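Study the following:
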Amino acid sequence: MPVRTAEAEWKGGVVDGSGRIKLGSGAFDGPYSFKARFEDGSGTNPEELMGASHAGCFTMALSGALGRAGYKPEHIHTTAKVHLEKVPDGFAIPKIDLDTEAKVAGITPEAFQEIAHQAKAGCPVSKALAGVEITLNAKLV
């Protein structure tokens, strides 16, 4: 299996400095900063990238799980909300909320819920984030 890479570079102090994050594939190369992470500044941040990774992984895992169960999804859309919180010793990511909507012909709501929760548990990014509470709100459209 391939090993994926990403890079980050930072110049200056944590509050007044800035950096760049670059994906090994070249699909993204952009700025990040203290303001982008902790306020409403421009650029990306690690939590946003983590959310993209988790949403993408879960969506693919759900598509695969539906396929193995004999269903062909027409459309799946997932949003990941990564919660960054101040804690006594710094900051932590205690929770990620996954919200997904899927259009899948011929599936019952109960079967969809079961498959969606199995996909959440089996998604490699969910497994990597085992120390984080991961919620799932899944609905058929």
About this structure: The longest strand covers residues 73-87. The two ends are 35 Å apart (CA to CA). The chain is about 35% helix and 40% strand. Helices lie at 34-38, 46-68, 109-122, 124-128.
